[in-house]
Amino acid sequence: MAYVIEGSTGAWEVVIGLEVHAQIISASKLFSGAATAFGAEPNTQVSFVDAAFPGMLPVINRVCVAQAVRTGLGLRAHINLVSRFDRKNYFYPDLPPGYQISQFAHPIVGAGVIEIELADGSTRSIGVTRLHMEQDAGKSLHDQHPGKSCIDLNRAGVALMEIVSEPDLRSPEEAGAYVRKLRSILRYLGTCDGNMEEGSLRADVNVSVRKHGEPYRTRCEVKNVNSIRFVMLAVEAEAMRQVAVWEAGGTVQQETRLFDSGRGVTRPMRSKEDAHDYRYFPDPDLFPLVLDEDWVEQLRRALPELPDEKRARFMRDYGLSAYDAGVLVAEQATALYFEAVARGRDAKQAANWVTGDLFATLNRSGRTIEDSPVSAASLGRMLDLVADGTINGRIAKDVFDAMAETGLAPDAIVQQRGLRQVTDTGAIDAAVAAVLAANPDKVAEFRGGKDKLFGFFVGQVMREMRGKGNPGLVNEALKQALT
Amino acid sequence: MSLDPVTVRRIAKLARIRVEDSQVPRLQAELNGILGWIEQLNEVDVDGVEPLTGGAQMALRLREDAVTDGGIPEQVLANAPDRAGDFFAVPKVVE
């Protein structure tokens, strides 16, 4: 069902477009040889180019260009073999030259598309307008000194990709799904680490509202939103604000705003009053960027399998549901782990273990799948023990927990703790007899027609056998004993 | 095209150049003179001519992705009007 905001004058549709800034993974900066690593001592990763000393000239980094092209290919977008750099002029202390080198009129990547997946299982294609390269700015710190702002230029000049969507998104959920999917694609490609906490991925959210069937109304831009949850909250807060403005008889002014996550509202950003007068012009220091078609083809052929293709393959080859496949491919490491477990085994079962017990264990311990306490090989081996009848499905949970705790192989745990499944019918019959003898009233009820009690008896026998009974044999023995 | 005084003040503000009211008429005349001169370019027929953004029709040279610079905070900060530790210090700008 379509997302709307119910106002006093009826339902309002929300129109959202996103500009995502993604820091490119490279060793050195876009136009200088200074390092890009996060968290270095202030101003130690700054060259004279980054600090805009007079007479310094930019020289572009080949890997940054390749990363932008690969991202464009991953977004199934048009690659412009000729692109150019422009100067975007504005004054801010963390921007030493007084302009940002960006691509305005001729971006390196044109129109593409991102498939987003929604909670109800549906998918939507969201248009990508363009992707261009530009420089990141330095960082201003306001809490280091009582009367001054402190400027660290380590980030100044690091390569960014700005990825601009069409105004195709219609709800906070879709906006969240878009960022999540884009992040997943970038991480698969290895072009951006997607770390929103460290600011390697940031979103500017453009929001407007309208009555159904109307043309677009004025939009506002909420800048620098730094988590997927905040993107969703910012959309909602800004849309509500605009509905209130329109319904009070006012007019929404186009402006740049900030999301205050503490109070859950947006507020105007004073420093950006003149923000839309950037006076772009071609950077005279930089020739056009001309790409070799063969090089682009080489990059295309070397692309990894991306989330959409992997998801389709998981559904086709492993018979997984769209939902399970979507969850498993979101992170490359998860997909890799799953495939190691599923290969040659019951894939549906492998998926259940990975998305169920494994994810729960990782969540609890705050670990990632890369340093999972249970390796894919161990989980696979455990499924083999279930498949060949060494342990039953119920005991498998205990074995899994023990593996998570101790890091031991499943065979060792089964051996040490005596968890082998009991298929000895003598032992099972004895357990059945003991349970029936201890519960004469329930036996009478069952024989009197209360069929539902069968489950109770199964549970009791399993308890008697400390979970190790073969479920099939236990069922059979109970049926016989009770009739 | 001709600039009015309001536009002249706006250009000055965007360039962070202080302009006294008494200077505006002279600046307005000078800027209009420059614009008029540039507008002569509109008379040239450039249909089918690719725009030229540099002095020569060349493409960018790409450098390898290697860390070859940085690690010189003292030199980078040498001309800073004010510093706090290894940061540049500027008047507080809080959003």
Description:
The complex is a heterodimer of chains A (483) and B (95). Chain A is α+β, with helices and mostly antiparallel strands and 483 residues long. Chain A folds into three domains: 4-297, no CATH class; 305-417, no CATH class; 425-482, Orthogonal Bundle (Arc Repressor Mutant, subunit A), CATH 1.10.10.410. Chain A is 39% helix and 19% strand. In chain A, the strands form four sheets. In chain A, strands 1, 2, 7, 8, 11, 12, 13, 14 and 15 form a nine-stranded mixed beta sheet that branches. In chain A, strands 6-5-16 form a three-stranded antiparallel beta sheet, with no helix packed on it. A two-stranded antiparallel sheet of chain A has the order 4-17. In chain A, a hairpin with a 2-residue loop joins strand 1 (4-7) and strand 2. Chain A is elongated and about 95 Å long. The model of chain A has no long low-confidence stretch (mean pLDDT 92). Helix content of chain B is 33%, strand content 9%. The relative contact order of chain B is 0.08. The model of chain B has no long low-confidence stretch (mean pLDDT 89). Classes of the chains: A alpha+beta (483), B alpha+beta (95). Chains A and B meet through strand 3, helix 1, strand 10 and strand 17 of A and helix 1, strand 1, helix 3 and strand 3 of B. Strand 3 (60-61) of chain A pairs parallel with strand 1 (62-63) of chain B.
What topology does this entry show?
The complex is a heterodimer of chains A (483) and B (95).
Chain A: E1 4-7, E2 10-23, E3 60-61, H1 62-74, E4 82-83, E5 86-89, E6 99-102, E7 112-117, E8 123-135, E9 139-141, E10 148-152, E11 159-165, H2 172-189, E12 201-210, E13 220-225, H3 228-247, E14 256-260, E15 265-268, E16 281-282, E17 289-290, H4 293-301, H5 307-318, H6 322-329, H7 332-342, H8 347-365, H9 376-387, H10 393-406, H11 410-417, H12 425-438, H13 440-447, H14 453-464, H15 471-482
Parallel strand pairs in A: 13-14
Antiparallel strand pairs in A: 1-2, 2-11, 2-12, 4-17, 5-6, 5-16, 7-8, 8-11, 9-10, 12-13, 14-15
Chain B: H1 5-14, H2 24-39, E1 62-63, H3 73-77, E2 83-84, E3 87-91
Antiparallel strand pairs in B: 2-3
